[in-house]
């Protein structure tokens, strides 16, 4: 009997209509298009402006897009994993609400939180459920309404992030396609450098924390950049070496879209030309948990059955890693 691997069989995604361009940001903070583009590669990002809609809305739309494209019946889903850093609310898991709203009535669900690495860790988690043989369809969602936790008077962070949602369906495969290997890492020493100070159990919300703007993302840009450049490249190289892959063997690098210079560093270490790197940071910015599935959505038609893909991410905490996937279908 052939061993079971977890293969991606469908993808979907969603970004809001409103486009926040660098030119608009120039009217909000002390910055300009050239400064933003040269340092990040970002030209614009999408923002969910509806005050009554949260991360769940982005995830629901992404799931619906996947269902419509693949003719998947939501009632056949066994598990919904919600990768996010911006849940709708504390305590009540966002994924549980999303599963109910999309009609996945036979699935159980939970949230997975690992900052910008949430979706990457979710891929590993989804694969384990499939490989167990007990679950046949696992829906992995990655969505974040980053605009809800960004201070738009802080040019260090407001230029980077956007809102979006992505969806990926994992199913069993016995032909050798799907997730092949992974190398996931974390280091709590990174906690002070990328965080939100207030709103958790250490520093609950109060009038003082709100007045001090402690519910917005804080990022020590230099430290995060330095750590991300070296470590994201390291894990990509590690996965390639473990699987005897060369730059010629890899069809695509699927990188977290945090900063183009970080992406370039990983691609250079892997000896990959630009045409083998999925890139949409210029259009969406950093959508945190949604970056990887949105890359798949944008490049799906270029993917071929048997292609070797290396996924890589880096996030607060610090969290980072790389996953090697053999693509399972032709679009």
Word description of this protein:
- It is a single chain.
- The protein has 331 residues and is of the alpha/beta class.
- It folds into two domains: 5-177, Thiolase/Chalcone synthase (Peroxisomal Thiolase, Chain A, domain 1, 3-Layer(aba) Sandwich), CATH 3.40.47.10; 179-326, Peroxisomal Thiolase, Chain A, domain 1.
- It has eleven helices and 13 strands.
- It has a five-stranded mixed beta sheet with strand order 1-7-6-4-5, sandwiched between helices.
- A hairpin with a 3-residue loop joins strand 12 (308-315) and strand 13.
- The longest helix is centred in the C-terminal third of the chain and has 22 residues, at 221-242.
- The protein is globular, with a radius of gyration of 19 Å.
- The two termini are 28 Å apart.
- The mean pLDDT is 97.
What's a concise summary of this model?
With 331 residues, the chain is an alpha/beta fold. Helix content is 32%, strand content 24%.
Which key phrases capture this entry?
331 residues, alpha/beta, Peroxisomal Thiolase, Chain A, domain 1, 2 domains, four-stranded mixed sheet, 11 helices, globular
